Amino acid sequence: xxxxxxxxxxxxxxxxxxxxxxxxxxxxxxxxxxxxxxxxxxxxxxxxxxxxxxxxxxxxxxxxxxxxxxxxxxxxxxxxxxxxxxxxxxxxxxxxxxxxxxxxxxxxxxxxxxxxxxxxxxxxxxxxxxxxxxxxxxxxxxxxxxxxxxxxxxxxxxxxxxxxxxxxxxxxxxxxxxxxxxxxxxxxxxxxxxxxxxxxxxxxxxxxxxxxxxxxxxxxxxxxxxxxxxxxxxxxxxxxxxxxxxxxxxxxxxxxxxxxxxxxxxxxxxxxxxxxxxxxxxxxxxxxxxxxxxxxxxxxxxxxxxxxxxxxxxxxxxxxxxxxxxxxxxxxxxxxxxxxxxxxxxxxxxxxxxxxxxxxxxxxxxxxxxxxxxxxxxxxxxxxxxxxxxxxxxxxxxxxxxxxxxxxxxxxxxxxxxxxxxxxxxxxxxxxxxxxxxxxxxxxxxx
Amino acid sequence: xxxxxxxxxxxxxxxxxxxxxxxxxxxxxxxxxxxxxxxxxxxxxxxxxxxxxxxxxxxxxxxxxxxxxxxxxxxxxxxxxxxxxxxxxxxxxxxxxxxxxxxxxxxxxxxxxxxxxxxxxxxxxxxxxxxxxxxxxxxxxxxxxxxxxxxxxxxxxxxxxxxxxxxxxxxxxxxxxxxxxxxxxxxxxxxxxxxxxxxxxxxxxxxxxxxxxxxxxxxxxxxxxxxxxxxxxxxxxxxxxxxxxxxxxxxxxxxxxxxxxxxxxxxxxxxxxxxxxxxxxxxxxxxxxxxxxxxxxxxxxxxxxxxxxxxxxxxxxxxxxxxxxxxxxxxxxxxxxxxxxxxxxxxxxxxxxxxxxxxxxxxxxxxxxxxxxxxxxxxxxxxxxxxxxxxxxxxxxxxxxxxxxxxxxxxxxxxxxxxxxxxx
Lengths: 447, 424
Ligand SMILES: Cc1cc2nc3c(=O)[nH]c(=O)nc-3n(C[C@H](O)[C@H](O)[C@H](O)COP(=O)(O)OP(=O)(O)OC[C@H]3O[C@@H](n4cnc5c(N)ncnc54)[C@H](O)[C@@H]3O)c2cc1C
Ligand SMILES: Cc1cc2nc3c(=O)[nH]c(=O)nc-3n(C[C@H](O)[C@H](O)[C@H](O)COP(=O)(O)O)c2cc1C
Ligand code: SF4
Description:
Chain A is built from 16 helices and 17 strands. Chain A is of the alpha/beta class.
């Protein structure tokens, strides 16, 4: 892990040099030598537990073995055949709770093999070669599929459907493709415009057209999509956020963490971005951690992450919580937001100390206040149900059958907007891939 | 600390570790550095009559494992490429400066009596303790009628050994080539010629890799390559077998052996001594890691000897020889089975897939409800081949356990299912 200088100079005034250092790769990529040395630690397990722990079932021992023989392109193809966004996943997956957690070396008190970094090594190698796209399309089926949302689930579905011989039109509300790869993942995980480069690479398969600034629910309707295409896939993610529902939430300086991150990801010059001097982040997931760490790296003086419950209940992984701490983020636990105060813009935030009464979280009646000129809310996202009016929805997720089909015939869904696994990039990629096979079957193919 | 002093062919040495005739013993400075590092002796780089040979540029190639580890190297170098007198003058100097260390001369020549005798006398006059006859070099020199061109013909080995024995009165070591079908033919020939010891093995004929861009063997000399001599860790098993063959052959069992071939650690050294070697020579390990490699050889060997209670090398020398037998003398009633320790198993599955795909389908793979993977040996199917134990990455996780039996020691010739026995 790269430890970089994290200095704070108040509102958005870190120097360009500091910004460059603070937003460089979180994990330095492997050199060829490091990759070979690390790859040789892999035991080449049979029916390996790491494969089962990967939502996309990449043949991990297989690709690592290919790296040991110098066959990096073969390794990349092994990865991409299961996970066309293997490049992003190598950068963004919480490997500590996925593949690397399952590595058998953990059992012998050794560090697990650095699967994520090896995966990145292989995929980056292939992408840098800029050769012909590694996969071929099957004979044309004559069918067309509408994909709504150009996030990981939508693009993964589009790529697999194109491989299976279908033509795909992707309708995307935003001006750019990639979904949260482009707008949401932490900047230091996706340096050098990787999200865009990966989309370009993926489109190399052919047969996929992306139409930007087309939002389902605005002028674009489901009826049109169904009329124009043989099947529809929804990969619309979670377009809305939860509110705090407390006094002062509308005040200036109170933002959704995802909006703050989106602005940061889209900025061409982060040294001009404005961040508070005293930033409070509310939440306990990886979005909260990302918002807190990136605020600090932008130059905020004090960043405090506040959570209602204890550390054990935080949904962020241990690695992410450590990352926040080593970046100088204060973590305050057992504190519930009560009120945001200020004259027009936020000046402070009031909290109540919380405790457990049995299993129940209760207030203690004790309050305290923290100064703040910026509050970032990261207490969860939810699906925008507007565009899917009339679909069966359960717990804010689209209900699907075994074959990823929603309650509306011919309309399939995947990614964050359904309940499959965790809300992770890799799960979205897997959903999109499986849904493409289901759609193929639905259209009379072999799946 | 066990004493590592030993004697070979009447030559005393402070330890059994000598550098073999090769680049590490090519000139004054290399040899002095070796003695400073603690080597007991050297066999000087092979000398011939002037004019000296000329070497090519691009000389060595390597056989590596996946992690840049070197399994073996090969070379297409010839013998000493410096004038004879320069070498002899340096030998005289080192002999004077390092009186307690052994220097053996090494020589080769075309098959002419006078040439061998004159050269042997010249080198002996420089004060070397013994003379090694290089009948082994498998590249270049053999095309000129020297090296393995002589070593591969037992009659020539015998003849040349006799010539040299007639010319000088210091011990003569005959260095054998492994590029033959039966090492005993040349060892016995050397003995008939009067050799005081044999040194083995020299390098093995090889093409070490092919450069797929140049489409030529490596080391590549201006687009072409040639077969070269293979040595280093990978050749040790071949050398061990040849040493054992000479040790257990009634004709040659008393012939002193200077063992060479892939010695890299004290354990390698102990194995050769257990198979009857009297002293040892090392080349590749020194070339790859420097002369300091001898430190571990010395301390490791003497620590192990202390732990075993061996006070001298003679105490265990040759102890493994009686246990090297022909296949026909093995006990067909012996049975051993794999046992996998569930406590230390890390669930990698390597044993299962090895046995399942390529051996005897004897390792049962189960996944419990909680996801725990277990691997268990089915004793009825296990033939005791050791494959699972070999592939297991965890030390001591798979043990081969001998099955107690009441059955007698029974060899294949005695076995009821042996068709030849049945016929008689
Ligand atoms: C801040 C943040 C950080 C994260 N960090 C990580 C991480 O480090 N690692 C990890 O694995 N996961 C991370 N995640 C989760 C991960 O980003 C998501 O699980 C993943 O992007 C889900 O993919 P998706 O395709 O379902 O949705 P999205 O990526 O959200 O893509 C949905 C796409 O659909 C478009 N869209 C939405 N509605 C419509 C409509 N009506 N019409 C047309 N288009 C529409 C959107 O514009 C978007 O492009 C993070 C999430 C957030 C918010
Ligand atoms: C580069 C090189 C040059 C060699 N030159 C000679 C030589 O001149 N004379 C000789 O008898 N053996 C020569 N050998 C063979 C070694 O002395 C030794 O027998 C062989 O390398 C096996 O031992 P090892 O596995 O410890 O290297 C040479 C070996 C190498 C690698
Ligand atoms: S010893 Fe051979 S046959 Fe027996 S379990 Fe191991 S691999 Fe299978």
